[in-house]
Fold these 4 entries.
Entry 1:
Amino acid sequence: MDFLLGFIEEFLKIVLINGIVDNLGGLFDEVNNRVGVIASTVGTPPAAWQPGVFSLIRNISETVVLPIAGIIITFLATYELLNLIVDKNNLNDVDTWMFFKWVFKTFIAILILSNTFNIVMAVFDVAQSVINSAGGLIAGSTQVTVDILAEFEASLWERELGSLLGLWLHTIFIELTVRALSLVIFVIVYGRMVEIFLLTSLAPIPLATLSNREFGGMGQNYFKSLCAIALQGLLILVCVGIYAVLVQNIATSGNPITAIWTVVGHTILLAFTLFKTGSVAKSVLGC
């Protein structure tokens, strides 16, 4: 009977230890994969991220939104011309130069509108150049090492069955937590790309007001928002870089469970700071 009980206990220990190691190995893989996705996604231009979606957005912008912007710019040009006439005492005090000024402003407004997509993409091209330069500084340093797992697995054989069962439940909770955080990070990073597409699709409307003194604030705020979301990519990469430095200092030292929970804590911190990058970028540019 003792032999049978010993065999069952040994079998359960093997099952639990393998389960614990698999859970922790999956945790490290999930963290590494998600951080890698952040770095690669942020460093990808909108046109290259999802070419099919980008083509759809461009078609919508040029065929649906651009005609509306054309009506707006026509209205604003007419409105500005009427104001010029009224301000000059109904043409009793006419300065010929004001008509040249009006024609020049209208020409610039039409030129901006006709090159809306090029202007928007130029903002992101500049941002991507900065992001790619920053990405080279942290590439290869974002992975959480798994050196502690071999030592940890050896120490598990010294534990009792009840302790192993509790530890197995412990690691399941940790793995679920990290997977939930991975989902949050996915939503933040991919949500930024969707926001870029949304801003891009409506670009002609605010840019049509850019040359007008009274309504130009709409275009200026839009351009600030565009620069802010481009700057957000750099801030996201900075967050990943900070995370990389933090995890490299704890992944291979100390109590294994403490180290693993510290990794989880840093992942929670990463998710929280990623949430804040959008508001920080907007506050910097005064959006």
Entry 2:
Amino acid sequence: MPLKRVGVVARKDLKGAASVLADIAGWLQAQGIQALFDTDTAVLAGVPKDFPIATRDDLPKHVDLMVVLGGDGSLLGMANRIARAGVDIAILGINFGSLGFLTEVTLEEIQPALESAIDGTAAIEERMTLRGRVLRDGTAVDDRLAVNDIVVNRGSLSRIIDMAITIDGHPVTHVRADGLIVTTPTGSTAYNLAAGGPIVHPAVDALVVTPIAPHTLTYRPIVIPGSSEVRIKPLIEGSSDELYATFDGQHGVPLISGDEVIVKQATQRLKLVRASSRSYFDVLRQKLKWGQR
């Protein structure tokens, strides 16, 4: 289906993006495609008052493709909005600065990437997402999606957490650690990697459960089937404990005694427009500097 409208979103503080935004809007218009900015991006670009805009939350409902300028965090935020809107559109991530794992298209590659997305020749990669629910007295007090990871950890206090872990109804272990990460293959190169977890290729149907600084030498990250359901029950002692379930580092839910965090693969998939000039392993080498240090 031909593209009629393309949503364009830039990180709010990306002052150097104004000229790039104008170039994208002008190029799309020359192709007979309407660019639609969100409110903040329109201000950043300095567009005329009659330029079509929408709120960042509503934007996914009105476009056929989303272009995000910024870093991986900007893309994750928009991916969450697309999921909440219940629409099936792809994201083209354009990176400002160093190459991102998700926003891998460089400024020099914008036009070729847009051309391939418009003519249907672009490689669209589907990535697993997670659905996380926080149960309190048997009722879900929060239910949302994550692309990278769902993490249970402390707020301002740095104390060890005792957690009971269950996978597919089978008790696994009690872990004492600074926190616990449940990650997708996409998120394996994020917090999981920093915590000592493995890198998992995005085509692999798996989840990774990684402790953060475990208080035992025998507890290590574990790779489990992508169909698994992980239940995490923190053993909270007293009201002074500050504990949260965080989703992609974008949203945090305070936990209280008795709460349970349930994580499983979501039905929604993240669709990424990939740059044709590099493979996944090229991105790993460039981002992680493999063989250079």
Entry 3:
Amino acid sequence: MRKHDVVYILKDGTKPDELRYSLRSIEANMDHGKVWFYCGQPEGLIPDRAVPGRQEGSTKWERVRFSLKQICKNDKISKKFWLFNDDFYVLAKMDSTKPLHRGLLQDHILDVEARHGGAPTGYTKQLRKCMDQLRQAGCTTLDYALHVPMLIDREKMLETLEMFPRCPMFRSLYGNYAQIGGDFFKDVKTVSPDKEIPEDALFFSTSNKAFNGEVLRQIRERFPDPCKYEAEYQKKVDDDGETVGS
């Protein structure tokens, strides 16, 4: 059986720092097929396949959706693939493909608005739009936009994007429209560089500001050696035929 590929959608100018450790975490803890970079390719990092191209769209979400459509039409990518962000880390052996969500969209909306004095934000307005469109389509309204890898069926995601062409919350649209179900899981993204990463954590995610300080020290400690997707590793293999750590 073909293993599921891993796909990163990268904007031009993406720095390699977080992505480097994301790739190391995949190599250490995840049984996977090919690793694909779409659009961007940070210096010093070498995926199995790189697809260059300019993302079309006036907003971040439009550009991501454009790239996602191209990915879903690419039959060289496994039928189901893991969608990763460059700041996702797999911290322990991953032996399940079961989907994860953080409960109902309505609950997440209320939690976010409570932190803003009960007022709607631009983000919660988009969440409400997503929830309303799902309800109109007769779908469930779970929130799948937590910061962990998501296994996506190319055909079903393409159908989802065509069904909901003007809403940016593609993870939650897909999860509910494709009826993937899954288990509740707390979001693992941190915005603080002082965060203590739990020893038993399966996943972790950083923000740009959080990839620093204590968080960076802990990630480096977990993944100290270059992996096969780094030029440094490949140069060593070319030079002496040995793998890092051998």
Entry 4:
Amino acid sequence: MSSTSTLSRVGVVAKPDLGDCGDLLDTLAAWLETRGLSVVFDEQSAQLAGPRHQRMPADLLVAAVDLIVLLGGDGTLLLTADRVAMAGARTPILGVNFGSLGFLTEVRLPELYDILESVLAGTARIDERAMLRVEILDGDRLVQDVCVLNDVVITRGALSRMTDLSVSVNDQFVARFKADGLIVATATGSTAYNLSAGGPIVHPGVDALVLTPIAPHTLTNRPVVIPVNSTVVIHPLPNADHQDVFVTFDGQVGHPLPPDHHVRVTRATQSLRLVRPTARSYYEVLREKLKWAER
């Protein structure tokens, strides 16, 4: 990572319901300021930190700073990562875990200042994580265009019948999936909804996507691992019940998918730059978060 000579402005983003964390945010801001860095909070976090701090809207902050220090859970990081990508920025994120699981926000609070010191020294470990561009199209007309880090999910509503989806990869027909839904996940997202649906864990260093049907009607419809640079196109079939079919982006935002629309998924030009602890391997994170070998 770049040394402190090119690091001048740090953004701080906190989980909105983090609670009484004003002292922590003030201490963090003071620590950064004593090292010659300016600090800016997103507007929600500034309400937790107090009135003296500089603030700006989150959508603008992600591209206006050289580093984002994020205090929260994976949901907060996903939302912030998607904002960074949509802004066309490459701002690295240092995620401090205040959530319940923390696959992405894996830095522990006692490690925060040591890792910040390594960032300032230019020796921090930075992982590049692939992201996806998801387009909703009505014929050739672009209806929606977003970036996601973990996954895009097409699923049925609470009262609808199973979905009926036609899936192609690079213009080659793959299968017709009759299922509760379909997950298209990155390697990073393989430990999210994909894992709960029976999909494989994919090391984030592997350039791959996973297509995972959710509760498929045909039990031989299994998850498929494909190259990350593939173009995946998903069409709801005309005889499916489209009244309550939804597309969900990173588990954060969902929208109805009309019967005449389709979904196109490609690798995004932006990738997430994630500051990680140097002493902890990905396998250690898996053991810790998934409680492997514990009874």
